[in-house]
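Sequence in, structure out. Go.
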Amino acid sequence: MQVIATVLGIPPDDGDRFRVWVHDMLEVAPTDVNVAIATLLDFSGYLQEHVERRRVEPSDDIVTFLLGAEFEGRPLTDPEIFGGCLLLLVAGIDTMWSAIGATLWHLASHPEQRKRLRDEPDLWPTAIEEFLRAFSPVTMAREVTQDTELGGCPMKAGDPLLLPFPAANRDPDAFDHPDEVILDRALNRHFAIGVGIHRCLGSNLARMELDTAVRRFLDRIPDSTLADAEAVMWSVGQVRGPRVLPLDFGT
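Output:
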């Protein structure tokens, strides 16, 4: 949350409001249109105040950058600025706390891997890619463009479609032992952060956040274990990660 607050130039003290918006937008709104509308209106009002403030008091942040940006020779419209900030809010917060949480969940039950990461620091770059592959938090939405059939499932033009990156990243035709977390996996062309022209613009920031958070956690709490495996609760919707993760920090 602090990273996105810094990027947008908003006060870090407003972090709790952003956490509520992200939760409502991604986990509640898909099944409650009233929550969806209320959340968008609330965030829109907050952001509009911030945009107007930056028109008068520019700073070194994304909102100021967007206010001065052009597309095809014209300034960005307010809806375009709002859309860019909304994307940062949704794509930059829930995805990362989900990836970090899933990684800590895994390491809590794999002491041998925690030890390898402590003893073999050169493993970190490949380990981060493997955590992204194994615990991809994102499922993208698309629309069917023409009538077709895939795997015996008929689909019609205009149908909404979810593309679960986690499923692609566990494809046995693409990965050896796909359900295992292999810290030194050499060949790892995963889809956790998209591919091609749809590759996530924040992919390198995401790697940095995951690397920093997990390293710092293991440095300070090297022997955490699951306090109650049955109590772990996972999110629902397009972004998957643990929402309740009881850990025992040891002594």
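Check: The beta strands are 70-71, 74-75, 139-143, 148-150, 153-155, 160-164, 225-226, 233-234, 242-244, 247-248. The chain has one domain: 2-248.
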